[in-house]
Specification:
This protein has helices at residues 82-96, 99-115, 168-182, 200-204, 210-223, 242-249, 253-260, 277-286, 294-299, 307-312, 332-347, 355-361, 364-370, 395-398, 403-410, 438-456; strands spanning 2-11, 19-28, 31-37, 48-51, 56-59, 61-66, 118-123, 147-153, 190-195, 227-231, 267-271, 289-292, 317-319, 387-390, 416-421, 424-428, 431-432. It is α/β, with parallel strands linked by helices. It folds into two domains: 2-59 and 377-429, Urease, subunit C, domain 1, CATH 2.30.40; 61-370, Alpha-Beta Barrel (TIM Barrel).
Length: 471
């Protein structure tokens, strides 16, 4: 299949951040064959030609932190800080969910991400979601066209979880089994990672331990898996959040990992909004990556992290959307804009973080954090053809002189017109090409969410929090 896309504003995100406007992209099979200015556009016979009509073509966006199960909790977290939300809402909702609920939530999340141009997502599940049937030929949602990095929780017995069935040997065996099953299928559409919770909150609650972190790191290293972990997030409070646990333990989450001797380039440190200068230096020296979820941090008043400083130290910084129960948005274009706005605000400088850097955080940096930048994350010959064509019809997009700024600051994810994954359309001009009816999936999810809220005793939180005008 030879597919030629013409008359586009091509945002390559290559090493030189080249922009071809107007430009073309030639796709052959699952790979990008050529890219360049229209003056060098090839001629000949093609199976398909698409006129971009001046629209943006960007690499498929990479969402490195997404709690897919939380789609069933939308609207019940209003007005709560992270810690009370976790205790009062999240844990109760998870306990009330069944296997089919997790699958339905994953489908909703996949559709929302594809609709807005995300083509790769690291899914950070609840532990219970690992009870999904993984004995089939392919992992759940493989039919939708989203490239999935399946997070696999690593858990062993701790003093609080004394009845857990796994010690380190059994947990390592289970991780290897699930990693193989979750990596099935052609075209590198399904990948695996592991989740190791190690922050002071989890340690203080007895859900993590030195033994868990050390053995989990070894198991992941033996399998060549990336490790994702929540660190240095939450409310900046002595009473219930980050500062409370730092005061009790006398160390930060980064210092803890470093003292255990496990921090290396396999770690994806999620949140990091309360990193200190010492934390940043350790992360830099150990080669770990950090993932920012800007709108999620903002909506729950967590904080604005030191991302300009981390980028300046050469740390790989990527983006994610976090949990849709906390922040409704799955739009990675919105995350790119938000990181620019929030960093400029933090530093009181209109040039603190550029749209160009934000675009890299949403694309190639995500690929680098996953260790797959050789075949994903930018528009370059030989890489997999994960591409998104965005409409460029509004004056705010057309009149801006810098095309990267016009895309990041004046576009929305819903401007996506064509979403290609491995060169095949997953979303095409309002239609999901997997042959599914989004309305039916949403209706099923709505019904399941109501049932979950009822079983969990949280149905009252599904009522509007803010005053409503009388009809």
């Amino acid at each position: 299949m030879r597919h030629l896309i013409t008359n586009a504003c091509v945002l390559t995100v290559n090493a030189s951040d080249e922009v071809f406007s107007p430009g073309y992209v030639l796709i052959e099979g699952e790979r990008i064959a050529a890219v360049g200015p229209m003056s060098a556009c090839p001629h000949g016979a093609f199976d398909l030609t698409t006129d971009a009509e001046g629209g943006f073509i960007a690499p498929g966006l990479i969402n490195l932190h997404e709690h897919d199960y939380m789609h069933m909790m939308k609207g019940i977290a209003e007005g709560l800080l992270l810690e009370p939300w976790s205790r009062q809402v999240s844990s109760r909702s998870r306990e009330a969910m069944e296997g089919a609920d997790f699958v339905a939530a994953m489908r909703i999340g996949a559709l929302e991400m594809l609709r807005t141009g995300t083509t790769t997502a690291l899914l950070h599940p609840a532990r219970a979601s690992l009870e999904l049937d993984v004995d089939g030929p392919l992992p759940p949602n493989s039919d939708l066209g989203l490239r999935q990095v399946h997070g696999i929780a690593y858990q062993i017995r701790t003093p609080v979880l004394a009845d857990h069935p796994f010690g380190p040997a059994e947990a390592a065996e289970n991780l290897a089994l699930l990693a193989e099953r979750f990596s099935r299928g052609p075209g590198q559409m399904n990948l695996a990672a592991t989740m190791i919770e190690c922050n002071a909150h989890h340690t203080a609650a007895g859900r993590s331990s030195d033994e868990l972190v050390i053995s989990g790191h070894k198991a992941a290293s033996d399998l060549g898996l990336r490790i994702a972990s929540h660190v240095s997030g939450g409310t900046l409070s002595m009473a219930m959040g980050f500062l409370k646990y730092k005061r009790v333990t006398g160390r930060s989450d980064v210092e803890y990992l470093d003292r255990l001797g496990v921090l290396d380039d396999s770690w994806l440190l999620i949140h990091g909004i309360h990193f200190t200068d010492q934390d940043i230096a350790i992360v830099r020296d150990r080669g770990a990556s950090v993932v920012y979820t800007p709108t999620s941090e903002a909506i729950r008043a967590g904080g604005i992290g030191p991302w300009v400083q981390m980028l300046g130290e050469g740390i790989v910084c990527a983006l994610g959307t976090d949990g849709p129960a906390v922040d409704y948005s799955m739009d990675m274009v919105e995350q790119m804009k938000a990181v620019v706005l929030f960093q400029n605000l933090r530093h009181r400088s209109p040039t603190a973080l550029s749209p160009r850097e934000a675009l890299r955080m949403g694309t190639i940096n995500g690929a680098r954090a996953l260790g797959i930048e050789s075949w994903l994350g930018s528009i370059e010959p030989g890489k997999r053809a994960d591409l998104v064509l965005y409409r460029r019809e509004r004056s705010s997009q057309r009149l801006a002189t810098d095309p990267i700024a016009a895309f990041v600051m004046a576009s929305n994810g819903t401007d996506a017109r064509l979403v290609l994954v491995n060169g095949r359309p997953a979303y095409d001009d309002g239609r999901f090409t997997a042959g599914i009816d989004p309305a039916l999936i949403v209706a099923e999810a709505r019904e399941r969410a109501d049932a979950i809220n009822t079983r969990s005793g949280l149905i009252s939180r599904a009522e509007p929090v803010w005053p409503q005008n009388a009809a």
